[in-house]
Amino acid sequence: QLHRRGFRCLHGVDGSAGMLERARSTGLYRELRQCVLGREPLPAPAEHYDAVTVVGALGEGQVPSTVLPELLRVTKPGGFLCLTTRSNPSNLRYKGELEAALGQLEKSGAWQKLLAQEVEHWERATSEEESTQGTGYISGVVYLYQKCPVPPLED
User: Which domain of life does this protein belong to (predicted)?
Assistant: First the structure.
């Protein structure tokens, strides 16, 4: 979707060589690097990217919420960070940790929250226990932040 909307300079990272090969086969990425988020620094200089996205990786047993300062490090001032997590029962503890960390960075003035939107049918559930009200799907949240310094939004 990003490529179709004119974004052509896409870089990607993943901890799995197999997923990087799959991404490479799409022809959409200008650069792909192997990196385990939360365990090693991102392979990019400080304030390098206009926008950073993490989709499908912020969850229990995956990328720790302690990765947030590293994501901020590689984002230009005024740049955007789009993050997602699931709201299914097995991810609620992680989601609480993540939201506390997001809030702490906002309180410190590192970034400003632009959006936190719940998405009811985020992805298919793998079990009935994880399904949101028996729909066969789990819900998720999309968070959008802008790295400071930016003027605060007026009410």
Answer: Eukaryota
pTM of the model: 0.88
Domain encompassing residue 27: 1-34
Token couple for 11: 């870089």
Return the CATH number at 74: 3.40.50.150
For every one of its 155 residues, what pLDDT tens digit does the chain have, with 9 covering 90 and above? 887 888 889 999 999 999 999 999 999 999 999 999 999 999 999 999 999 999 989 999 999 999 999 999 999 999 999 999 999 989 999 999 999 999 999 999 999 999 999 999 888 888 877 877 778 899 999 999 999 985 556 66
Do both 58 and 109 map to the same domain? yes
SS (H, E, C) 22-68: HHHHHCCCCEEEECCECCECCCCCCCCEEEEEECCCCCCCCCCHHHH
